[in-house]
């Protein structure tokens, strides 16, 4: 396989770190673009980083001139991109294009679906709207097939929002019966890394589509996720159901989320509680494809929520 020259933005996060290590293992030359070049990379020791030939470079996605400099310095032709909430991302996409990037893999969100009209997503649906703006920019600036958007469902790491409550011995959430298909962040990264190495030709088997949906290997309610946390920690953790209003307040006051985003998220939880495992998002060919995409592109088996919790249980006691 020919060596590809790839730049990964945000490698201090689990997703981007996994994208970097997976792409490098497949023979790519990988640059790690980060605001603080002294920070540790998850799963990558200094010794491994040096022996594998990773290159660190300073860059900030909110400062287009640093993107231009990083790409020109590394000579990268392919890039991994993620969303920074609350910041306009179009200038970053423009900088990638003008600096010589030919192909982008964007870590988007399954809050956007096959039915989504990107230009008419409501700003009230904050997560979907924010990701849609980046997808629009990629479409207009790069065009198909020069980018791929990976749309994962719920990150397994979302359960870390409950960390302080887990420590106190009780998790208080709205709609504990809401069903999610939790995905391990490193699995998302591995898929992105595989697509970066494969390049635009990956779309040949997708009928020209530039979207790869991804879902976790199992469905679980929020309450079942709490139970799994308890299993890995060796203790029972009660779950207390909050009202919808209390749930919004928790996201706003407890987690610093904008109220509109909190309302949208709690509304989603209500829908996923009412529909459960029969939700339309967990049915049909599109879901089955999303379920199989990880193994299809990486050749590996996906990580279950329980496995990810076992690997990261120390985060609940830090």
Briefly say what this structure is:
By secondary structure, this protein is an alpha/beta fold.
Give an overview of the whole structure.
The chain has 318 residues and is α/β, with parallel strands linked by helices. The chain has twelve helices and eleven strands. It has helices spanning 14-25, 46-52, 64-74, 90-98, 126-141, 163-168, 185-198, 222-233, 244-254, 259-275, 284-298, 305-312, and strands at 5-9, 29-34, 55-58, 78-82, 103-107, 147-152, 171-174, 179-180, 211-214, 220-221, 239-242. The chain has a seven-stranded parallel sheet with strand order 3-2-1-4-5-6-9, with helices on both faces. Strands 7-11 form a two-stranded parallel ribbon. Strands 8-10 form a two-stranded antiparallel sheet. The chain is globular. It starts with a strand and ends in a 6-residue tail after the last helix. The model has no long low-confidence stretch (mean pLDDT 93). It comes from Truncatella angustata.
């Amino acid at each position: 396989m020919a060596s590809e020259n790839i730049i990964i933005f945000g490698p201090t996060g689990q997703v981007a770190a996994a994208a970097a290590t997976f792409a490098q293992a497949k023979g790519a030359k990988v640059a790690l673009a980060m605001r603080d070049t002294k920070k540790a990379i998850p799963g990558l020791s200094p010794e491994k980083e040096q022996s594998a030939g990773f290159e660190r470079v300073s860059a900030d996605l909110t400062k287009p001139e640093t993107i231009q400099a990083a790409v020109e310095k590394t000579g990268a032709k392919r890039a991994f991109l993620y969303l920074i909430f609350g910041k306009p991302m179009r200038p970053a996409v423009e900088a990638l294009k003008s600096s010589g990037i030919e192909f982008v893999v964007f870590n988007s969100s399954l809050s956007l679906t096959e039915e989504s009209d990107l230009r008419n997503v409501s700003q009230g649906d904050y997560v979907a709207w924010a990701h849609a703006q980046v997808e629009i920019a990629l479409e207009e600036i790069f065009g198909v097939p020069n980018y791929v958007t990976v749309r994962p469902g719920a990150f397994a790491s979302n359960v870390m929002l409950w960390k302080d409550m887990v420590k106190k011995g009780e998790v208080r959430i709205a709609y504990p019966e809401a069903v999610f298909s939790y995905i391990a962040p490193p699995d998302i990264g591995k898929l992105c890394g595989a697509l970066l190495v494969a390049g635009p030709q990956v779309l040949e088997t997708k009928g020209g589509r530039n979207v790869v949906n991804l879902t976790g290997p199992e469905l679980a309610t929020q309450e079942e996720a709490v139970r799994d946390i308890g299993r890995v920690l060796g203790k029972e953790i009660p779950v207390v159901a909050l009202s919808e209003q209390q749930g919004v307040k928790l996201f706003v006051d407890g987690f610093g989320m904008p109220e509109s985003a909190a309302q949208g998220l709690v509304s989603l939880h209500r829908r996923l509680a009412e529909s459960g495992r029969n939700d339309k998002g967990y049915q049909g060919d599109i879901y089955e494809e999303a379920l199989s995409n990880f193994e299809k592109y990486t050749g590996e088996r996906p990580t279950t929520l329980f496995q990810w919790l076992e690997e990261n249980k120390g985060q609940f006691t830090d």
